[in-house]
Write the structure tokens for this entry.
Amino acid sequence: MVEEEKQIALHENWNLLYVALTRAKQGLWLSGVESARHRQQGGLVPDSWYERSCEGQVPVFTELDEASNAQTHSIASEPFSASEISFDFPDLVLTWHGTPSTSLETQALGIDEQRRMQEGEWFHQILERITPSQYRMAEAIPDPQSLASRLGIDEVSAERTIKRAHSVFTSPELSSLFNPESYRNAWNELDVVSEDGRCLRIDRLVEFDHELVVLDYKLSIPEQADPLYTQYQQQLGRYCQAVRKLFPNKLVRSLLIDSRGRGANLLN
């Protein structure tokens, strides 16, 4: 029954795209944000609407490309009067150039940090593909050569990534989180909205009869004295808070899972 429901949901997902394509009277626009975890595939999430549209040679809107490459500055740097403003929205195409972000994510990273981030992305990608979730069947763990070809990496890195994913997927401690017979439902790469309106992406959310477990994948679990420990605590706290809004009648807890197949509850 559960498998039939998942197949029905998957069919409805593609049926919705079909209806949109065939019934649009003026035009159909698909927009999204480039996936940092699928840069080797042009930022497209495999088997998504966007990837299927590109395969079908749907035209790609590129009018904003030149504007995005032009030199930009803050609007506040140049005064203007109300008489200079005109409102003309023939196609309602908007772009914005503001003050560059100064967040930690955009600061220059060293070679070691960049490599660590890449390995983390590969780790996430393979776990997303081999773990069963709603709307998508799980794939078999690939061999190093296949994974290297898919991600555009060397086979040594691919083999290390596979070993890490295998440690998680086969961990006795975590088995109930990846075995469909143990839980009611599961979602990979689930987008939720925080109370302040920010879009958050949960690596995996698993629903049991009486609780939900938020999973977050990291290559390692930091020590409590490490600043990353507090950072991860806050991150997991936001995830749990957002999930509680969706499932107010169930207990919500979280686990930080590392590449050795260990889980840690940082919020207790």
Remarks:
- Residues 111-264 form a domain with the Lambda Exonuclease; Chain A fold (CATH 3.90.320.10).
- The CA atoms of residues 228 and 256 lie 12 Å apart.
- The first strand starts at residue 185 and ends at 193.
